[in-house]
Write a structure and sequence with these properties.
The protein has a four-stranded mixed sheet with strand order 1-4-5-8, with helices on one face. Strands 2-3-7-6 form a four-stranded antiparallel sheet, with no helix packed on it. It folds into three domains: 7-118, Orthogonal Bundle (Butyryl-Coa Dehydrogenase, subunit A, domain 1); 123-231, Butyryl-CoA Dehydrogenase, subunit A, domain 2 (Beta Barrel), CATH 2.40.110.10; 234-378, Butyryl-CoA Dehydrogenase, subunit A, domain 3 (Up-down Bundle), CATH 1.20.140.10. It starts with 6 loop residues before the first helix and ends with a helix. It is built from ten helices and ten strands. The protein is globular, with a radius of gyration of 21 Å. By secondary structure, it is an alpha+beta fold. The model has no long low-confidence stretch (mean pLDDT 96). Strand 9 (271-272) and strand 10 (275-276) form a beta hairpin.
Length: 379
């Protein structure tokens, strides 16, 4: 069993680390405070090929693998977890669904600019009445001549509010030839008549990540905007969400690393009772637990990514990685807050930002409860 990274994977990790430390980290607090979308940073990410790491060069990618992709996501998330989320949605979910299930024409038209980073994708599954129960989709698509007519709404949609977002992939309920209900996936380009953005959500964190409601009112798209096989839209979404779960695990590891590093630095500098607080086991043991859990979570997400690259089943491993890493990140953020004491409550200290942003990792790409359901059903 060889745990060594390949030369290419190490290069991706090191490139992402330099970029995160030199470009992203100095801006992270300001972006969170102002909510300004970092288009200039996204453009530099595109120049470095980050959005296309796992896709073939023929489709605008770098010809890398999913291990390398997730090492990149971890490094970015250590500096700013919202940029890790950008890659999760646009590459791990949208780009992958286009690559795996799209026609050649769809790949050329929509995947290439996304893999090149010139455009960003969005993923529309959640609805007001369909969250964890994603099969309760109410949005409809009705065949009408050479078009589909879509009506309904999606909520909590990441990326779609960005100026460089080009499309959203959604699920919608249809009728098959025999009149039975089916769920299909559709590509809806931004700017399509009948497709509009609803409210921009006011969030407690991730303020510089665009999150909007999507509204479809007699939205007409050509018949060839169906993505994948008819009746398989829900299954396709679930398949790519397995990779999204690995991405959330990588994001969680990056955030937890930031918590651990900030805590270690502070604990060695903060003096109480005549000595650095790191000398007290109540503090040093917390940091030791952080380091251990980070290593375990990284090993799990890398195993899941390696299984995916190897073409082997990874449903359980992706769920293990997402569940363990996201709950671990919350514990690390809480312990980092505690170690910093009153300073942890101050916005000038990064741990306050980490504490506000960690909880959502247990919600997106399937809640912790859903992960436990997936795991128990596969045992």
């Amino acid at each position: 069993m060889d745990f060594r990274l390949s030369e290419e994977q190490q290069m991706i990790r090191d490139m992402a680390r330099r970029f995160a430390e030199g470009v992203v980290a100095p801006r992270a607090a300001e972006m969170e405070a102002t909510g300004e979308y970092p288009y200039d940073i996204m453009n530099r990410m595109a120049d470095l090929g980050m959005m296309g790491i796992p896709f073939p060069t023929g489709y605008g990618g770098s010809g890398g693998d999913w291990v390398g992709m997730h090492l990149c996501i971890e490094e970015l998330s250590r500096a700013d977890v919202t940029l890790g989320g950008l890659l999760d949605v646009t590459t791990s979910v949208v780009g992958q669904e286009l690559f795996v299930f799209g026609t050649e024409e769809q790949k050329r038209r929509w995947l290439v600019p996304i893999a090149q980073g010139r455009e960003i994708g969005a993923f529309g599954l959640t609805e007001p009445g369909a969250g964890s129960d994603a099969g309760a989709t109410k949005t409809t698509a009705v065949a009408n001549g050479d078009h589909w007519v879509i009506n309904g709404s999606k909520q909590f949609i990441t990326n779609i509010g960005l100026d460089n977002a080009s499309l959203v992939i959604i699920t919608a309920r249809t009728k098959d030839a025999s009149g039975r209900d089916a769920v299909n996936a559709f590509i809806v380009p931004k700017g399509t008549a009948g497709f509009s953005l609803g409210r921009k959500y006011d969030k407690m964190g991730w303020t510089h990540s665009a999150t909007h409601e999507c509204i479809f009112e007699d939205c007409r798209i050509p018949r060839d905007h169906l993505l994948g096989k008819e009746g398989r839209g829900f299954a396709q979404h679930l398949a790519v969400l397995e990779t999204g779960r690995i991405s959330i695990a990588a994001m969680s590891v990056g955030l937890a690393r930031a918590c651990c590093e900030a805590s270690l630095k502070y604990a060695k500098e903060r003096v109480q009772f005549g000595k650095p607080i790191f000398s007290f086991q109540a503090v040093s043991f917390k940091i030791a637990d952080m380091a251990m859990h980070i290593e375990l979570a990284r090993t799990m997400y890398l195993k899941a990514a390696w299984l995916k690259d190897s073409g082997m089943p990874h449903t359980l491993e992706a769920a293990y990685a997402k569940l363990f890493a996201s709950e671990m990140a919350e514990r690390c953020a809480s312990d980092a807050f505690q170690i910093h004491g009153g300073y942890g409550f101050m916005n000038e200290y990064a741990v306050s930002r980490y504490f506000k942003t960690c909880k959502i990792l247990q919600i997106v790409e399937g809640t912790s409860e859903i992960q436990r359901l997936v795991i128990s059903r596969n045992l």
